[in-house]
Protein: Glyoxal reductase
Organism: Heyndrickxia shackletonii
Amino acid sequence: MIKNLQDTTTLHNGVKMPWFGLGVFKVEEGQELVQAVKNAIKHGYRSVDTAAIYGNETGVGKGILEGIKEAGISRDDLFITSKVWNDDLGYDSTLKAFETSLDKLGLEYLDLYLIHWPVEGKYKEAWRALETLYKAGKVKAIGVSNFQIHHLEDLLKDAEIKPMVNQVELHPRLTQKELLSYCLENDIQLEAWSPLMQGQLLDLPELKVIAEKYNKSIAQIILRWDLQNGIVVIPKSTKEHRIIENANVFDFTLSNEDMKAIDALNQNHRVGPDPDNFDF
């Protein structure tokens, strides 16, 4: 049972990853970003997720360092994730991209480094680079993002180390049940990006009914549903009250009936690109 914001899931290599974190997709460099990261840390978040392509690693790093100081915690208390972008997929280029991210973040190591998209013909070499970084102790866990089952199977044919995490688009309109089962069976932790479908689910009547029943917001209901499904979540917000509200999901449990009602909202509908058909 997940009881608070610092609760963790144990990855297959023994590393502990918080179930709940802050996402910063589409948050531009600047004081708002720095403050959002600081606020999240102040209010008990211990995980922050960024990526090279977001162009905001410098601000995230600043927020982390200031947040650590103000909260009186150590770097080791935090779990920081970044991702290598498609243009840099390749053995040497991925190693170099990692150093660039580390440098921008102002950190000595990352907790999790992911391949952002499964670019055909490129992700295996990039994975080899991630294995090298992992063995060198520069990153505590390695994984992938937006990988479907067939991508994972293909990667596992040659991988020395199995991915610890797969971060994918996942929300009540795209429940990814098959992928979730596959990841559970293979001891790969599934993580949801865009858990609130970029805000598109926040006035869905079916969810409104459930939210009223528990006296919670629709966002809180969705995030709780993720956690009860064993899925790590990283909702994005820059507003302090929303950062607090999003994380206020540890004082109630959804019934099996309500869990099934939310599962039933699935339409296999994506708001982001299709991992089998993207051209970037």
Remarks:
- Residues 132 and 167 are 21 Å apart (CA to CA).
- Residues 8-263 form a domain with the TIM Barrel fold (CATH 3.20.20.100).
